[in-house]
Amino acid sequence: MPDDWMDIAIGVAVDDGVGDLGPETENWWPLFRQLGLSRELYNVIMLPEYRQIRETETAKYWIKDTMEIRYGELMMIRECSGKRGAKARAFHSKSQLGQGSKASQGKQASKHLPDLAPLRPSMPSIARVEPDEPVPEGYVALWKGLARCRIKFLLDGQLNIQALESLPPCDFHGTSSEGPVLYFAEDRAVRQQYANFALQRQSQSSSQVGEKGVVLLWLLVNKAWAEDIRQYIEGDDWKKVIFLCRKGRDLRANHRTGFWSRELGVDGYADATVLVGHISQG
After folding, report:
1. pTM
2. Number of Cβ atoms within 10 Å of the Cβ of 58
3. Which of 60, 127, 138, 153 has the most CB atoms within 10 Å of its CB?
């Protein structure tokens, strides 16, 4: 049910009946006001120090992304509260059972008290998934910074890679017929900028319960393998691919939407496993 309500809320916020705005428009406030969104939400999205990142997407994209982050925080807070409540109930049950025991047994039990420290206000935290040691020889590191609530784990404790997928329309989404499209940066500074922007857009209330934070990921890739399969894209080809992917077109020439990729001569990028190019703005 909560997910259904969130879908409804986002659907209202990014109402298809209301036109979107791109980076060519300096003032997005009229759109926010028309959608019934707050000035606070507008201010954090429009922070000038993150203009270069913001201009890679439209107003509605950042509205939806920020709402999802804030909803994710609430779910983390609820989960954390539930775990603490379960610990408290378990401890209370044990206390009731042990009321007739000797004082020495009570002292022994006190060593196993659950951590019931109250949630306290805290500074925004940064969980570093990357280790501190240098990149191993023969590998190249790719970087990604994102809100902590975006991180999901599988039952075996492994990171759920699909949770990091970027949904269409995005820069290179038409380049693969199978599997998710994942974006990583070769520059650590870029990763930090994205992490900082995600951190700024999290709600102020989350910092009061210690759930505010971002995760800094790194992906180690065998250098020889990467050099062998990566394709670089720039110039006119880059512009054509970005345009088609942003329009939801598939780059595969034999696909029903692949006509223009063949006509523009960029269908050769359709099967790229690793495509290297700079992010688009506008």
Report:
1. 0.70
2. 21
3. 60
User: Which pLDDT tens digit goes with each residue over 38-60?
Assistant: 999 999 999 999 999 999 888 99
Q: Which residue has the tokens 């609820």?
A: 78
Q: Among 57, 82, 117, where does a domain finish?
A: 117
> Chain-wide mean pLDDT for the chain?
74
Same domain as 269, residue 133: yes
Q: What is the pLDDT of residues 151-177, one digit of tens each?
A: 877 777 777 777 787 766 677 766 554
Residue 163 lies in a domain: yes
Q: How many domains does the chain fold into?
A: 2
Whether 282 is in a domain gets the answer no
Residue 281 lies in a domain: no
Report residue 235 CA to chain centroid gap.
29
> The dihedral of CA 110, 116, 121, 127: what is its sign?
positive
254-282 burial, b for 16+ CB within 10 Å, e for fewer? ebeebebbbebebbebbebebbebebbee
